[in-house]
Amino acid sequence: MTNAAQVSHHRDEPHAPDIAARLNWLRAGVMGANDGIVSVAAVVVGVAGATTSTGPILTAGMAALVGGAISMALGEYVSVSSQTDSQRALIEKERRELAEEPEEELTELTAMYEAKGLAPQTARQVALELTEHDALAAHLEVELHIDQDDVASPWHAALASAIAFTLGAILPMLAILLPPESIRVQVAFAAVLVALAATGWLAARIGGGSRLRAATRVVVGGALALAATFAIGSLLGNSGLVG
Known about the structure:
mainly alpha, disordered N terminus
């Protein structure tokens, strides 16, 4: 098979160097939207079980949306900040070692390529050429699996998480507020479960897993959450504790 034919044969496979990072971000966005759908839907359905008044449902839904988006953003910011700090510390450590002990680092890089299966002479030649080109990048890639140009931004992660959660949360808000009062809970249930099936299917498609299994898991979980909160809301409403 010629090189051109090989490229054509594999044209649908992802080969971009940052494809894994992009897929992780996309998967995180889908799951963030899924969290927004489930958590806000559970709140508004629970309140709808206790009262038919639109005001309390809207208030509770908005509180859940804003609070959830901020919580997701803060959590993502803290998580990514910790990861970024660790990566930058490792990069600086490697840069310092290359400046202070270049021969030892070259020997280490050679040994790592030998461990990957290259012959000693080939490993040495590869290590020399990569060191001449960009020693730091070579060590970060092989030794630490880090790309110094691809360190995640905590602010970007926080903003993306908040946006994904908000977009997911809008659906149950509209599904519970727009339909007539007599069918608003049923419409919300249906809309949320369909949306959960879509996010589960998409997450599995991104990750390469079973789409039916993933969609079923999130739909069953979401249905249980909605049923539980609606039952609790109904009990509280019938008890007279809430009007």
